[in-house]
Amino acid sequence: MKIQNPVLHGFNADPSMLRVGDTYYIANSTFEWFPGVRLHESKDLVHWNLLPSPLSTTTLLDMKGNPSSGGIWAPDLTYADGKFWLIYTDVKITEGAFKDMTNYLTTADDIRGPWSDPIAVNGVGFDASLFHDDDGRKYLVQQTWDHREYHHPFDGITLTEFDTTTMQLKPHTARTIYTGTDVKLVEGPHLYKINGFYYLFAAQGGTVYTHEEVVARSKTLDALTFESEPDGPFITNFDTPRLGIQKQGHGALVNTPSGDEWYYASLCGRPWHHENESFTDPRGWCTLGRETSIQKVEWDDEGWPRVVGGHGGQMEVDAPKDAILTDAPANGDQHDEFDTPELNGEWNTLRVPFDDKMGAFGDGKLTLIGQRSLASEFDVSMIARRWQAFNFDAETKVKFDPYTYQQMAGLTNFYNDKNWSFVFITWDEKKGHVIEVAENDRNNYTSYLKDDAIQIPEDTEYVWFKVKARTQSYTYEYSFDGETWHEIPVELDAAHLSDDYILQEYGGFFTGAFVGLAAVDYSGYKQPAEFDYFDYKELD
User: Fold this and answer.
1) If you count Cβ atoms within 10 Å of the first and of the last residue's Cβ in the chain, which end, N or C, has fewer?
2) Going from the N-terminus, what domains does the chain have, and what CATH number goes with each?
């Protein structure tokens, strides 16, 4: 049996992997998307099933007003003392000299919850993880942020002892244990104790094509005692541009129940290229965001971990010999009639949970109450799911009765508040109800149909919308009966919804493309839209 990389498709970045008994778990970043922290479980490292997200209430996570790609950065999931420990960071600033943030701790006896009320730990830096030493002591390990313009902002890896009696850190125990190499940008630390050594795994080079993971070790936890792995880095794709997965680095280590085999979960990206582009410059466009790969690890004669197949990793990896074989979960397809008391676990909202202000669902329909535009960081009525394949079709059926051009409802493909497109029903003063396609590209808004907006016949109750994504581009279609479809003559560049495109003008490029349903009424009259179903079919 083989592990096929990536194991988690679409935006599943910054994996924190652990094993409890015979079950493996992965926690991933979710940034501004709610609920917070994405969890999967597996018995074999091959087949992964989605679990309920732990940060599902505003008590645990309140991101109202957070910038795009703020919010939950690099959660850390560990197990000790008979319970799960989750460290997570809520980042409030992404641009400029500061990264105002709070690191929180929550615990649960069961991975499915309930999770305890959060404890604010500190704000020293992001990518915090909790290390449980074998003598019972615990330490917070984290990237350290330096706002001073005459210093490098990534100020090494800090270790601080955690007092389990007060459930707070001991600030005066803080010390820098590692400053990384000349690649800089050292972050994403995870600490392990193996065969008498403390091994520190840390990311460097930024979460782009120069990304890498380094390993350092020490016999103690004293300041600046960690020695970097010779002949490193541990993993990188900087010099393997033609491998199908790129950007590997930030991740976590785990062993099998027998203790004989080791694996490393890493973020990765799968770039594609326009036909007229060089394969290496630009390096490519990752519309699916940063995904999760798993590589096998062996230990050399000097006790250093090495990725099997070389530091670039492999697309196919041998699964554990002692894996408990499980049935493959269903593919990524999703069909939703909105007839259940809870939203499907694939759905996400921006910054806050779905509530009565946003709309309602059940009895075979989803109602979205029009609020602010898709360019807003507040009060957006949208539910969306990840793009998890380069080629897919998604469609919906919507009833909407706008009476001003400030009211819109339909199907959206969305990266962040500055980068999205939208096919929607709206009002035109000359034609009445019409269909328009618009794009917000780096916050420059374009209506593509304008005076040629498609007039909706007066006796039409519902309009069907469809998006066809085909790796490099995507198009929208509409129907007035659900059977006869008409392509709208607007072809959009899928690269505009990629991490790499966003990075060219904005530092928050950490998520990936989503497809979803949205209603806008920035007039403030709260006009509702009714969605009958949503269907997502992968073609890859």
Assistant:
1) C
2) 2-318 (2.115.10.20), 334-538 (2.60.120.200)
Q: Within the chain, what is the greatest distance between any pair of CA atoms?
A: 78
Kindly list the distances between the CA atom of residue 204 and the CA atoms of 59, 157, 209, in Å, as whole numbers in the listed order.
Answer: 33, 11, 11
- Regarding pTM above 0.85, the answer is yes
Q: What pLDDT sits at residue 329?
A: 65
Give the percent of the chain with pLDDT over 70. Answer: 99
Query: What is the three-class DSSP state of 499?
Result: helix
Q: Which entry of 32, 127, 187, 261 is annotated as an active-site residue? A: 187
Tell me the per-residue pLDDT of 284-306, one tens digit each, with 9 for 90 and over. Answer: 999 999 999 999 999 999 999 99
* 75 vs 400: CA distance, rounded Å: 39
Residues forming a β-bridge with 359: 368
CA end-to-end distance (rounded Å), the chain: 21
Please, are residues 122 and 140 in contact by the beta-carbon 8 Å criterion? Answer: yes
What Cα–Cα distance (Å) separates residue 397 from each residue in 85, 411, 531?
A: 42, 9, 6
CA 319 from centre of chain: 25
3-state helix, strand, coil in the chain (%, to 5): 5, 45, 50
Residue in this structure with the two tokens 């960690």, named with its chain if needed: 226
Query: Dihedral, CA atoms, 307, 309, 310, 315, nearest 10 degrees?
Result: -90
Residue 14 designated active-site = yes
> Across-strand partners of 265?
252, 294
Residues 6+ apart with CB under 8 A from 356: none
pLDDT at 387 over 80: yes
Q: Which of 14, 76, 155, 212 is catalytic?
A: 14
H-helix segments, 281-388: none
Tokens for 145?
A: 């942020």
Rounded to whole angstroms, the Cα distance separating 526 from 158 reads 49
Q: What is the pLDDT of residues 439-464, one digit of tens each?
A: 999 999 999 999 999 999 999 999 99
Q: Looking at residue 532, what is its pLDDT?
A: 98
* 215 φ, ψ (degrees, to nearest 5): -125, 135
**Cα–chain-centroid distance for residue 359?**
25
List beta partners, residue 335: 535
The DSSP output letter for 232 is: -
The sign of the CA dihedral 194, 23, 384, 413 is positive
| Partner residues linked to 382 by β-bridges | 518
